[in-house]
Write a structure and sequence with these properties.
The complex is a heterodimer of chains A (291) and B (308).
Chain A lengths: L1 H30 L6 H17 L5 H29 L8 H24 L13 E4 L2 E4 H23 L1 H11 L1 H6 L4 H26 L7 H15 L4 H21 L7 H13 L9
Antiparallel strand pairs in A: 1-2
Helix pairs in contact in A: 1-5, 1-8, 1-9, 1-10, 2-3, 2-4, 2-8, 2-9, 3-4, 3-8, 5-6, 5-8, 9-10, 9-11
Chain B lengths: L1 H5 L1 H15 L6 H26 L7 H19 L3 H23 L5 H20 L1 H4 L5 E2 L8 H24 L1 H11 L1 H6 L4 H27 L1 E2 L1 H5 L1 H14 L5 H16 L6 H16 L3 H12 L1
Antiparallel strand pairs in B: 1-2
Chain lengths: 291, 308
Amino acid sequence: MLALQILIDGFAISALYALGATGFTLIFGVSGVLNLSHGAVMVTAAVAAWAAGSVLHLNPYADALVGLLAALIAAMATYFVSVQPIQHSRRIPGEEKEIFILTATLLWGIMLQELVAYFFTNNAKTVLPIVQGVVSILGVRTPRNEVFTAIVCWAVIGLLWLLVNRTKMGKTVLAASMNPRGVTLLGHELTHIYIVVWAIYGILAGIAGVLLGMFLGVSSYSAGPLTASAFAIVVLGGLGSVSGSLIAAYVVGYLETLTAYLISPAYRSIPALLLLVVVMYVRPQGLLGRR
Amino acid sequence: MPSRFRSPLLWITLAVLVIAATLPWYVSAYILGLLTVAYYFGVFAMSWDLLFGFAGEVNFGPTFLIGVGAYTAGILNSHYSVELYLCVAAGALAAVVAGFVLALPALRLRGPYFGLTTLVAVLILQSFVVVFADLTGGEIGLTIPDVLSINAGVNYWIALGFMAVSGAILFGLAQSPVGLILQASGQDPVQAGALGFNIIKHKLAAFIVSAFFSGLAGALMVFYMGTASVGTVVDLAVGVQVIVAAVLGGRRTVLGGALGAIFLIVAGEFLRPTGELATFIVSSVALLVILFFPNGFLGAVLSRGTRS
């Protein structure tokens, strides 16, 4: 019974992790940017959805839409404030741009987080779920919201796969991740591709953020740990490898759920972090990464 | 060598230090307390700059080293009543060991992977502090019975002297041939390696020196504050503040780190009336500096000096 419960709970939380990490890895794969404001963007989405529900009294669907929009705006702002100026800067030498972007996105994330805390306090907030009630799966009482979360996450990941592999725009994005110079030679403006990718990222992070708000609740304090867990999952799976991060999301998700159920919720994040350190020692390129 | 003694930077630094040393005679204890903390932060930022500015490695976990130093000293003092100076020495030593354990695997990694490992180290340390609450005081913090001194002026002089000595050693190291090799391996590891320098060994040495000063400063700060808590020595926010201080002051200058730290702490105090927005304002100023003056305060001054 407990095993089944862990299996179900772990599946839902892992799906959420997978969705959050997919956007993160997409940005890295295409533009080589590690976005350290990722957690703050997700928190912004969740808190915006919460505010739409409890301040403006909209219905849950409208809440989710508001959250999504907030994440989209936050993601575009991240790109235009803390990524593009550095990519275009002439004063920062090329080999140091990576570090500058890391620092700038980190600072931008703190600014977002502080703004959220200033306007909406840093209390934990739970977004009103779109579907309510419980359903029995093989005898385990499971909130419908949990099932909904898992389905939406996988549906969105599926759509993303279709978008990248089956549409012209997606193929351009894929090509840009393999050979940016080649793509520009074919007449595509690289900046346009980046903007498209950041918009997709914003939508992915927004969906993940709103679902997280419905499932576990968030506070402005969650921003740092959320960034760290996405970062950890992506590195565990291999930077830039989407299928790697999906597998890693499940490894981390189940590890955390197992620890929370069998030992104590207080130790929840420790085994995953230790696993990450071990992987760093043994296989720095991650599970499915190439170097 | 003699040209370095003719450089105005040395004389300006000395003059500023002498003026700073006379402050306890005519400044309130409140301002002294503020500056004392700022000086310890200055050492954090300078040790971080040795790694980032020279070795080219971005260490997202300066607080891992600081925290290990601070907690080792604190735990020894409060649970085992070990003498203060031994505690500080043990703290610095523990930070060096922790730095070695962290750096050995992490330095095999490049760029973001190294940064991530250091970031994860902080999160692990933070979890352990919370989990082993009996030993570490958990989220509330550890109360330290011993203090460096009860006199604000003496505390201030200890911090100032410590910052001056650490700054001199770190600056000297950065200007030495070893510093040049570090800089070369930070900028082009392949070419530096081809010239016959052992890059890993140099970077490891830089990491250990950085860890030593971070741990020492962390341990001393604990005895100044009388408490060690996650919020003051381990939290990622503290690490971010150290990084911002170093970048603001000017990377690759070492001394800029101290400037940046003093600026940050003093600015944070001036912004206190704005309440919760203080962190927001400090982060935005830091972001603007990074975007528009990537060389920082001291970097901007120095580059103007060489151009004229």
